[in-house]
Amino acid sequence: MVQDSDYLGSLPPWSAERAHQLALEEGMRIEENHMEILMAARDFFSAYGFSPSMRPLCKVVTEHLGVEKGRSLYLNKLFSGSPAKLVAKLAGLPKPKNCI
User: Fold this and answer.
1) CATH number of this structure's domain 15-90, picked from the four choices 3.40.50.1950, 1.10.10.370, 3.40.50.970, 3.90.850.10
2) What would the pLDDT profile of 38-94 be if each residue is shown by its tens digit?
């Protein structure tokens, strides 16, 4: 039986500096265009209580930043490999459920 205390009640401690440190571990550098995606993902988590997989990530980025930045090609360019998984990691969020 899962208890309420087993769920993440709030976002873990996180900062832009932590995101930069995690990015360096991934062999990348974070710039302003990366940070705006990370903040959109954190807003999504605050609203829904889970990390966005790729489709919801595209949707929330489109809502926050416009259609061009919400395209999967743009997100793949910034966060190559598995954008939703990498965005969640850098944003201090749990791994999206459908990401391997």
Assistant:
1) 1.10.10.370
2) 999 999 999 999 999 999 999 999 999 999 999 999 999 999 989 999 999 999 999
SS3 annotation, 49-82: CCCCCHHHHHHHHHHHHCHHHHCHHHHHHHCCCC
Sign of CA dihedral 18, 30, 98, 45: positive
Q: Is 26 left (phi over 0), alpha (psi -120 to 50) or beta?
A: alpha
pLDDT 10s digits, 3-52:
444 444 556 688 999 999 999 999 999 999 999 999 999 999 999 999 99
Burial of 16 (0-12, 13-18, 19+ CB in 10 A): exposed
> Where in the chain are the domains?
15-90
